Amino acid sequence: MGHFSSMFNGLARFSLRKGRNSGNEEGREIAAELAKEAKKNDLLLSSSGCVNVNGSRNFASVFSKRGEKGVNQDCFIVWEEFGCQADMIFCGIFDGHGPWGHFVAKKVQESMPSSLLYNWQQTLAQTSLDEDMDLESDKKYRRLNVWKQSYMKACAAVDKELEQHRKIDSFCSGTTALTIVRQGELIYIANVGDSRAVLATTLDDGSLVPVQLTVDFKPNLPQEAERITQCNGRVFCLDDEPGVHRVWLPHKESPGLAMSRAFGDYCVKDFGLISVPEVTQRHITSKDQFVVLATDGVWDVISNQEAVQIVSSTPDQAKSAKRLVECAARAWKRKRRGIAMDDISAICLFFHSSTLLHQVHSAVTAK
Fold this sequence. Notes:
Elements: H1 2-9, H2 11-18, H3 20-40, E1 44-45, E2 49-51, E3 59-65, E4 74-80, E5 88-97, H4 101-126, H5 136-163, E6 174-175, E7 177-183, E8 186-192, E9 196-202, E10 208-212, H6 222-230, E11 234-236, E12 246-249, E13 252-257, E14 263-264, E15 278-283, E16 288-294, H7 296-299, H8 304-312, H9 320-335, E17 344-350, H10 354-366
Antiparallel strand pairs: 1-4, 2-3, 3-17, 4-5, 5-6, 5-7, 6-14, 7-8, 8-15, 9-10, 9-16, 11-12, 12-13, 16-17
Helix pairs in contact: 1-3, 2-3, 2-4, 3-4, 4-5, 8-9
């Protein structure tokens, strides 16, 4: 891994020396090579399974189930030692929609990590992080700012690249993107769309409770609806879908998007739909046990509390995502009879050893 690590460390210096355009192209190529190397070394997962690297504090369980609408348009990625950084892991989950949604989701899944890596390294090279700063809060703020800038640039680049892709028609198709990066004891969450990240943390009495880390970017949220209407887009529900707000063109009843942020969907990008991520951070403590990233196929039928309970009560962590997805599939049959089940996907990222989590679960069940 040494060769690739040295290449990565020189990314920003190379880009600044060679010039902006050539540097970006070369930097993305190097980042893509890092992804190939990670996959070869079982550090990168993009199919159902688990990632458990010796010596790592992270354990990731991943599972996806095709719905009843055709091809599975969900996809995901878990990359341990993200960019050859021993203390980093990247997780992303993508929910495609529209005729070409599965191609769009796959493309964003492939492009996002390398684009983020390149932009993070470039932003670091241009930002001074003084480790001797007195206030730890200042350090956290500046690190968050680096990741925010990196994500903003990466998402803009990915969306532009997608629009120019000759073999993928994303005019009326798109994807959401929910990703997190764990760097040491901090996690950075970036959300575009209506997938959701939920953290499981323990209270002083030992009970395990959910903390929602993201906003479901639905069109009826006040600031989202305001932006869309100011851009002459429309937000309303169909008569046969009360409560399901969608985004529509000014003078045409299409495309009817159920989210207000997404990659692709260029037919409504001039009418309020954006691919700008909301980026936040959280400091992980010994009380925080795991985080669940899941597409709306889970959250449409499973509450945050139910998800935390299902995952924490699964004896084998490797099967936690599968159990959550299967519980959601059964809930669809009970709660949404007559409605075609959506694709359902989840990533469960554990922060500590399984022993600690089982101790927490035992304390909860004993009460």
